Every structure is written in structure tokens, then in C-alpha cells.
Amino acid sequence: MAGKQEGGRLVYADLIRVAAMLAVIIIHVSGGWLESLPVGTADWHALNAWDSLTRWAVPVFVMCSGMFLLDPKKSLSLPTLFFRYFLRMVTALFFWGIAYHLLYDFLNGVLSLDSLPHALYAVVLGNTETHLWFLTMMMGLYLLTPLLRSFIRGASRGDLHWFFLIYASFMLFLPLFLRLRGSQTVALYANRFYLNFTLAFPPLAYVGYFVAGYYLKTYTLGRVAEWFIYLLGIAGAVATVGGTALLSARSGGLDTTLYSYLTPNVAAMAVAVFVLFRYVLGVSDERSRKGQVSAMAACGFGVYLSHVVFLTLLRHFGLAIPPIPAAVAVPLLTLVIFIPSFALSWLLHKLPAVGRYLT
Known about the structure:
It is a single chain. The chain has 359 residues and is mainly α. 72% of the residues lie in helices and 1% in strands. The chain contains 15 helices and 2 strands. It has helices at 11-35, 42-52, 57-69, 78-107, 115-124, 133-154, 157-181, 184-192, 207-218, 223-251, 264-279, 287-298, 300-316, 326-349, 355-358; strands at 5-6, 9-10. It has a two-stranded antiparallel sheet with strand order 1-2. Helix 1 runs parallel beside helix 13 and helix 10 (223-251) runs antiparallel to helix 11. The longest helix has 30 residues, at 78-107. The relative contact order is 0.16.
């Protein structure tokens, strides 16, 4: 089931994108609510669980891009990379960046003829809605794609294992260790040896996920390796939920250290989820059902870009924190936000010429 394709598309990849789009909404629904509650309440623990257990979503989105773009068997010219991928990110950044500024001006009652140029100027300066950081990060990865494809073309499986070891050591474990323990000695050596090389080019921080997507699509895992990854994913989930509760209790407020996408616990969850869809989960052989999954996946990026519109509207009208238990409220709010987000993404995607650049 893992390798079945429909119309040239990997079915499990489409299914992962659908799951990831829902998980991202859960993160944003639970995150803002979580910050408003005192640590240790029943609702706080429920929201922490929802938020923690969906932190794999953004890394998986990056992996889904890498699994196709880095495949040396597929041709990818520089013009194609620029006009089909990079330009899409730029267009989406400006369109949605401006749209969110105009939305906030409208809700605050200050929308005017000056709002559009002010919004454009703000986007140029990098002042955009928080979740749009993903666009600029992906632009950086696209710039690196030709170099990464050259590396992968000549790399053996062992070379890739060494790459992942270096990446995990210096981009996942070392930063977390320094944040939790604050060792001056380790920090000194890290600075002396320029181990924090992402300061010069931040998208490098996500290059491991980008390459991991290609690796997990291309190479077959043995049964032992597969189950070991599942165990690590479960351990990562437990560490994220329990560790966040413990750190937050100690500090007296929400501690998001273990929520970072660049932590070993979240990376373990992301890889486990990807492998789970790759080898276990899937859809039936019915052609219509595969087509439905692919159609939803095609709108996934648009859902990511637009869902904050509807979350903002819920917050504006005081509906983002309903008077029901958080454990139930999160999936309900996710559905309430997903449906109009998907509809808007679908409509924009249908626009001639520009639709694919906005979603």
C-alpha cells in the first residue's frame, strides 16, 4: 500500500499532507488558548496534549517537499525551480501578508485607502502574520535545492546516515541541551567552532527534514528499524507532553522549549508519523477515494495559509474559547476552521493563471 500511486501521485504523500493540514490547525487552536490558562488545570493539560501531539505537522510538510524536489531521478531545472516553486512562495507571501494586514485594519475599524500601501510596506519589511514564516523558510530551502540534489546524487546511504547524525547532533540535541542546562563550557566551544551555522542562513536549520523526506521515500526500512522509529516517536510524544507539563510547572507559566520543531522529541514524532503513513496507513484501492484524498491534498497549502483568517474571526467575536471542555473543543474548533479554509483555498486554487501561486 505504501508505494501505490494514482495518476503519478504517491497516495500516502497526499494523505500525509491532509493529516498535516489538520494538525497545524490544532496547533494554532490550542496554542493561543493554552497561554491564557493557569498551568496544571484540566483544560491546560488537555490543550498541552493536543498541541504537543501535533507538533510533527510543520516538519512533515518540509519532508513532503524534500521527498520530491531532491529526487535526482526527476529533472528539475533552475527555471522550473524558480518559476514553479520559488516564485510561488514569493507571491503567496505578498498576497497573504497584505491580506492579513487588511483584515486586521478592517476588524479594528481603521481600514482606509492608505491601508494597502501600508500593508505592502509592512510585508516588504518582513512584518507578516506569524505562520507565514514557513514561506520564507521554504524559499531558503529552494535556494539550497540544486546543491542538495548534487550532494544526494553522489551520496551513498551511509553518507546520508552521517549527514543525519551531524544534523541531529548540532541542530537538535545541542541547542536543546544548551537551553535546558545552560552550560557555558559547551556554549563556548559551540561558538568557537561555529557550530551554530544557521545564524548566517536560518533555513539550514530545516535542511535535515528536507533531506529526510527524500531518504524515507527512497530507501526501504527493515522491520526492526521501522518499529524502532515508532518507539522513538512514542517516546518523543511522551517527552513533549510530559516535559512541557514539568517545565511549565517549574517556571509557573507555559514553557514552550519542547514545542520547538528543532528538538529531538519533535523530530522523532515527525519521522515516526511519516514512516507510519509510508508503511501502514493509506486509502483503499477505490479510484474515487484516492482522487478525493489527492484533491484535498492539493488545497493543503492554501488551508495552511488561510486558516488563520477564520481563527482570527473566531477570536474577534469571542468564540475561540468556548465554554466546553478543551479536550472536546479543540477538534470541534478545528473542524469549524477547516471547512471554510478548505472552501476558500479551493476557490482560490481555481483562479486561472494565479490560483496555484496563492494556494
